[in-house]
Every structure is written in C-alpha cells, then in structure tokens.
Write a structure and sequence with these properties.
7 helices, globular
Length: about 325
Amino acid sequence: TSTSPIPHSESIQYPTLPHKHESLYNPQSISQYLDTKFIEFVHGAKEWLNRDDKDSDDAKQQRMDLLRSVLRLECKDVYSLPVFRMEFCSDMLDEVKFLEEQIKNLDVQFTRPNSMNSYGMVLEEVGMKQWWDVFVNEYFSVLGAILSPQEPRLDAHHTFIVEYQATGKEWDKKLDLHVDDSELTLNLCLGEEKFEGGNLFISGHIERPHTYQDYSEYEHVIGKAIIHDGKQMHGALDLTKGRRFNLIMWGRSSKFREENRHIVKQKLVSRDGEKGDEHHDHHHGENCECSHGHDEHEKHHHGEEERTEKEES
C-alpha cells in the first residue's frame, strides 16, 4: 500500500486560529529549536556542497566525516540524527493539543494527514506552512543533498502530525505495511509520556524484491528523529498503552518527479508475495556511508511515489 496526501479537493480551509506558541509560526525562530549538532552539520554540509572537487579523496573523506557526525544506524535502513531540541517537541505537542481544542470548538473536522492515518493534522492548514518551507529549503534539503549529491535537491514537503491511541475503537492503534509519497521521510516522536508499543517495523525496499523478506524494528524515543527512504516498506505495530504523537515530513524533489513522471507503471509484488498497488518504479539515490561500526553500507535511496487514482483510495 502507498500512503498519499488527501487530494486537495477534499482539503478543508481552516479559519485563522489563535496560536499558543508564536515561535512555531515564525521562520526566524527555527534555529532556536534546532540541536546545535545539526546546525553545525548543516553549515559543514553547505561548505562541502560548494566544493568544486567533490570527487577528490579529501572531499569524499569530509563528506563521510560529516555524515558520521550526526547519523546513527538504528536498524536496517533507518538512521537517527539530532535535529530538534526537546523544547521543540514539548512546544509542538502543546500547540497540537491546543489547536485540536480550537478546531473542536469551531466544529471543524481535521483533514486526514494522509490516505492511511485517520487522526492528526496537516501543519500547512493550521498556519505553519512558511515555517516548514524554510526548514526544508535551509536545512532538510542540505541533508538530502549530501546523502545523494547526484540527485535533484529536495524543494517541497508534506508535513503532518499523526496520532495513535491504545484505547477506543475509533482510534488508530497501528499502521499497515506501506511506502510513503516522499523521496526522504523524517519521523519525529513528540510523545506523550508513558506510551508503550507501537514500534516502527521495517521491511524491504519496494524497488528491490530481494529485500522483501527483511524485517527489523525501531522503538520510538521522545525527541529522537529518524530518517528513511520514502520507498522503504514500513508500518507501525499496535500501540498497547497510552497515546503517541509523531511529526512526519515527506521531503520531495519537484525536479526529480518531473524528470521521472513518464516512467511506465509497473505491478510490484508486496513482501508476502501478493500483488500490491500500482507504483511508479523509480530509482533515486546512492550509497550512504554513514552507519556506525559497519564496514558494509546498505544503499540509502530517496524514493519517489507518484500517486495514481488507485493509490488515493
């Protein structure tokens, strides 16, 4: 299954809502929320991207050192990195709960964040679009560019909150196996405290059938951000206790999508051998030399998921 945004025609235009944390709407406040290690990494990565001798041994070593300074291999094809300070997680979680109450009082329903999650919100629709546009252009796109220097730069995003709750029949408790409509996905656990279960599970890459039997899990930690290729098959196990909010960013490259929009659709096979949905089979990325303590590095690709009518259902 492929997750995709709810089509624009179904989107709700929210009225202007009051804010609790104004800094989450002002792009000039972004740096105050970022981990200093991430800021240092981005500065170094920008310097590397401006080098004219990227194929030199010195440049290759610098790139590897930069990636290893922030990326940690958590499980197969999933890396963590220090992006946001804990203050950001607490402020964002507080703001999300505040906005939920505001919209409830206005008797306005949330737009579903994507075609699989029923609970959460799209941050663009509650006034945060400019904040995240700047974050992608100034920071996240730099990470994507140094991961895959030969590929078009990330320049767009779909950023949203998903919410899981262990009790109540109507709540999302898990998420089935799927791929994202992204080239590079960022997943940040916001909380709440004392949730249990709900591990992220990772299967193979949808473009590499020989990986379909792969399986690993990652246990979410409040404040820790992870990244993975959008076409890496994954899902969420049952949340067994409490309530959990995650901030998800689907990083996208409009140039990459335009260059690949005429690729012929193919029927791909899901990991259990049954026929899956139709996807565009695109290959995006290069070797990522960033895992700690590993001599062999798995390929870290940015994937592309162009939506079809079937995928939006």
